Automatic annotation (TrEMBL):
<keyword id="KW-0547">Nucleotide-binding</keyword>
<keyword id="KW-0805">Transcription regulation</keyword>
<dbReference type="InterPro" id="IPR058031">
    <property type="entry name" value="AAA_lid_NorR"/>
</dbReference>
<dbReference type="InterPro" id="IPR025944">
    <property type="entry name" value="Sigma_54_int_dom_CS"/>
</dbReference>
<protein>
    <submittedName>
        <fullName>Fis family transcriptional regulator</fullName>
    </submittedName>
</protein>
<keyword id="KW-0238">DNA-binding</keyword>
<dbReference type="InterPro" id="IPR003593">
    <property type="entry name" value="AAA+_ATPase"/>
</dbReference>
<dbReference type="InterPro" id="IPR025662">
    <property type="entry name" value="Sigma_54_int_dom_ATP-bd_1"/>
</dbReference>
<dbReference type="InterPro" id="IPR002197">
    <property type="entry name" value="HTH_Fis"/>
</dbReference>
<dbReference type="InterPro" id="IPR002078">
    <property type="entry name" value="Sigma_54_int"/>
</dbReference>
<dbReference type="Pfam" id="PF02954">
    <property type="entry name" value="HTH_8"/>
</dbReference>
<feature type="domain" description="Sigma-54 factor interaction">
    <location>
        <begin position="123"/>
        <end position="352"/>
    </location>
</feature>
<dbReference type="InterPro" id="IPR025943">
    <property type="entry name" value="Sigma_54_int_dom_ATP-bd_2"/>
</dbReference>
<dbReference type="Pfam" id="PF25601">
    <property type="entry name" value="AAA_lid_14"/>
</dbReference>
<dbReference type="GO" id="GO:0006355">
    <property type="term" value="P:regulation of DNA-templated transcription"/>
</dbReference>
<dbReference type="InterPro" id="IPR027417">
    <property type="entry name" value="P-loop_NTPase"/>
</dbReference>
<keyword id="KW-0804">Transcription</keyword>
Length: 424
């Protein structure tokens, strides 16, 4: 009984008053102590030394929860008591050494509504976390705040950017998108800021650039972490002065543009590594929005697969009525480094390759019949061997290789370039 136990140390009482339900775990991920509020939330206490994995099942996985610091849905349990919670982990370090984590909990407000599905600006989900993101998008859209969308390739960043624009007072104005990873720096500069005639060889006429073309609307800067440092400085100037100076020009031109940026990287880490300006990061990420990966919302995999099969059927390919259990298991266990884009490509592949009303294991692309190589965390973790295999399979066609891997062409191109550099 909680009442028969000795009173908690003063530090825990303070933590209890300041932060409510908190669980402290050591560097070995074992329970060290917890606040009385956690005990009330769970209706039981947790024994010191119990492995965290035994008492907490987060959506996604424990590693992700402990590393990314965002609030996640989870189930907390002790014996037969299980409570749906929202949890956030803060690493505890002393003299640069990890001592453990503090996990702070609140009760999940509504019971997890797995039945509720939603289509939001072309994005389908029944996942509570992603639906929460949609609600944030609706709120932020009404403001002028800069938004940074963070998510892996294929999680729907561009759709979210478009939704932010469409729902904003600028919705009737232009929406321009530019991928900062897709162009060499000098071209990127003139694409962004425009150029005047004669600014460089081939500049036969003035060009307005994306900033001016987005005047009165929104500009989506995809893969913003790839922006070279000198262009970051120019970008900051534009955002601060609200004017652009075209390449080769002198006169600043006023621009009224809302910036929506996206990246698959942790910008903070790019700042720490000296690759991204801190002042620009603060300017861009007034409201950060995190898109969960497909593997963090496994409940979406099969319904999305069926939706894509339906869509394909309407375009006249094979009619699939159901997915065989063995194929279902493979789809659900896959790491989906290319997220929803990859899932759609896999469904397209399967509907072309297989026959009959049942989608079978053998209809799935080769990577599903290979021994699993462990979960991949990022599309850019593609190794040289995977790239080589995909390129061979695609007969050297990069677009097709990217399609097979379920990543964008840009991701493939960047990865190939990185591997080339590593070879040098
Ligand atoms: N929840 C979803 N429901 C339906 N389709 C989705 C969903 N999420 C992504 N997609 C589809 O996946 C593809 C990738 O989406 P989008 O281009 O928005 O992703 P992204 O994160 O911007 O990718 P990248 O960073 O590789 O450019 C699109 O074809 C989109 O329609």
């Amino acid at each position: 009984m909680p009442s028969s136990r000795p009173p908690p140390p003063l530090a825990l009482t303070a933590l209890d008053s300041l932060a409510g339900a908190v669980l402290l775990v050591d560097a070995n991920r074992r329970v060290a102590s917890h606040t009385p509020a956690l005990e009330s939330l769970l209706g039981a206490s947790l024994r010191e030394g119990t492995a965290l994995a035994e008492v907490l099942t987060p959506q996604g996985d424990l590693d992700a929860l402990l590393s990314h610091g965002r609030e996640t849905s989870a189930r907390l349990r002790s014996g037969t008591n299980t409570v749906p919670v929202r949890v956030r982990a803060v690493p505890l370090t002393r003299a640069d050494r990890l001592q453990g984590w503090a996990l702070s909990f609140t009760r999940e407000q509504a019971p997890r509504d797995t039945e509720g599905e939603e289509v939001f600006h072309g994005l389908w989900t029944q996942d509570a976390e992603l639906r929460r993101v949609f609600r944030i998008v609706e709120k932020v859209a009404r403001t002028e705040s800069s938004v940074l969308v963070r998510g892996e390739s294929g999680t729907g960043k561009e759709h979210i950017a478009h939704a932010l624009h469409a729902l904003s007072p600028r919705g009737k104005g232009p929406f321009r998108a530019i991928n900062c990873a897709a162009l060499p720096p000098n071209l990127l500069e003139s694409e962004l800021f425009g150029h005047v005639r004669g600014a460089f060889t081939g500049a036969v006429r003035d060009s307005p650039g994306h900033f001016r073309l987005a005047h009165g609307g929104s500009l989506f800067l995809d893969e913003v972490a790839e922006l070279p440092l000198d262009l970051q400085a120019k970008m900051l100037r534009v955002l601060e002065t609200r004017t652009v100076i075209p390449v080769g020009g002198r006169a600043p031109v006023p621009v009224d543009v809302r910036i929506i940026a996206a990246t698959h990287r942790a910008l903070r880490r790019e700042v720490e590594a000296g690759r991204f300006r801190a002042d620009l990061m603060y300017r861009l990420r007034v409201v950060p929005i995190f898109l969960p990966t497909l593997r963090e919302r496994r409940g979406d995999i099969l319904p999305l697969a069926l939706r894509f099969l339906d869509e394909l059927q309407q375009r006249g390919t094979r009619r699939v009525e159901r997915i065989a259990p063995s194929a279902r298991r493979l789809l659900e266990a896959h790491a989906w480094p290319g997220n929803v884009r990859e899932l759609r490509n896999v469904m397209e592949y399967a509907s072309v390759i297989g026959e009959g009303p049942v989608l079978r294991e053998a209809d799935l692309p080769p990577e599903f019949s290979e021994p699993p190589g462990g979960p991949r965390l990022d599309a850019t973790d593609l190794d040289a061997e995977q790239l080589r295999r995909a390129l061979t399979q695609a007969g050297g066609n990069r677009t097709e290789a990217a399609r097979l891997l379920g990543v964008s062409r840009v991701t493939l191109w960047r990865r190939l370039r990185a591997l080339d550099e590593a070879d040098e």
